[in-house]
């Protein structure tokens, strides 16, 4: 197996007619015309390779993401403490609508302090967090009835913000809304933020 090689992928969009240019190792830059309309954005990711976890931050970027693929858990929801899962940044050249989306799973390895519920929220620029989703987890009946070792539930969602020109920071926050578990695991949290086309 060959080791993963870093590469550069850039997309350039123009309103009313879009051209894409992709550069991969050993391949020439090739323009591709498409009739897509009402598309206005620029995406250029820095060189990257395969890794257990990855995050992209670029000054003036119109897209940002964070991926965690490692099985080693580093984030936990404990008691009433709010936990910052990830923080993403992008820059808008003008007033824009911004889509934030995320996926993850919450695992209760013990039913102590449960049943529980966990709330997912997103805050823009340090403002009051916006509630996106709430799930129930840690029910002893789920594990016993379905014969799972632990109760694990998906926690994912999307939301749209309206923002003015400039750099904006988005923080994904998880918080236990009910129950008193001291160790709910956050598994594979992934998030993306990008500007929607006008």
Describe the overall structure.
- The protein is mainly β.
- It has two domains: 1-50, no CATH class; 51-195, Jelly Rolls, CATH 2.60.120.
- It is 4% helix and 57% strand.
- It has one helix at 140-146, and strands spanning 7-12, 18-22, 30-34, 42-48, 53-56, 63-68, 75-77, 83-92, 96-108, 116-124, 130-137, 151-154, 157-163, 166-178, 184-195.
- The strands form three sheets. Strands 5, 6, 7, 9, 12, 13 and 15 form a seven-stranded antiparallel beta sheet that branches. The chain has a four-stranded antiparallel beta sheet with strand order 3-2-1-4, with no helix packed on it.
- The protein is elongated, with a radius of gyration of 20 Å.
- The N and C termini lie far apart (43 Å).
- Residues 1-55 have low confidence and may be disordered.
Main CATH class of the largest domain: Mainly Beta
Helix content: under 10%
Spell the H/E element sequence: EEEEEEEEEEEHEEEE
**Overall number of strands:** 15
Could you say what the CATH architecture of the largest domain is?
A: Sandwich
Number of helices: 1
Overall mean pLDDT score? 76
Outline: elongated
Radius of gyration: 20 Å
- By CATH, the topology of the largest domain is Jelly Rolls
Euclidean distance between termini CA atoms: 43 Å
Sequence stretches where pLDDT stays below 50 over 5 or more residues: 1-55
What class, by secondary structure content? mainly beta
Number of domains: 2
Please outline the major beta sheet: 7 strands, antiparallel
